[in-house]
Amino acid sequence: MMKGGMGNLMKQAQMMQANMQKAQDELGLIDVEGLASNGLVKIAISCKHQIKKISIDPSVMNDHEMLEDLLIVAFKDALQKIEQTTDAKMGNMLPPGMKLPF
Q1: pTM of this structure
Q2: Which of 1, 14, 65, 89 has the highest CB neighbour number within 10 Å of its CB?
């Protein structure tokens, strides 16, 4: 490989790294909402996994076991939405078959 080709390859790698960093920064600004039981429990969380807000309908406060289950469902829903959002944002920057996180 000639010197010019290696320099060009390095520029492309740096550009890809900068684009990935920009996309990761943008993901930190995106919030998703996980829902359970038609919104009785809602969890707002950023795509960087920072919990922003948890809303619980008063009607489920008296049933401890059901509330625990609804929280789990809402968290799983939020995490699935984070994965989908991250894949959509970062997927076109990665070689086919490679997934985040590495």
Answers
A1: 0.74
A2: 89
Q: DSSP string covering the chain, please?
A: --HHHHHHHHHHHHHHHHHHHHHHHHHTT-EEEEEETTTTEEEEEETTS-EEEEEE-GGGTT-HHHHHHHHHHHHHHHHHHHHHHHHHHHGGGS-TT--S--
Residue 60: count of CB within 10 angstroms of its CB: 17
Q: Are 46 and 30 in contact (CB under 8 A)?
A: yes
pLDDT digits (tens, 9 = 90+) for 12-69: 878 888 888 888 888 889 999 999 999 999 999 999 899 999 999 999 999 999 999 9
Cis omega before residue 95 (within 30°)?
no
Contact yes or no for 70/40 (Cβ under 8 A): yes
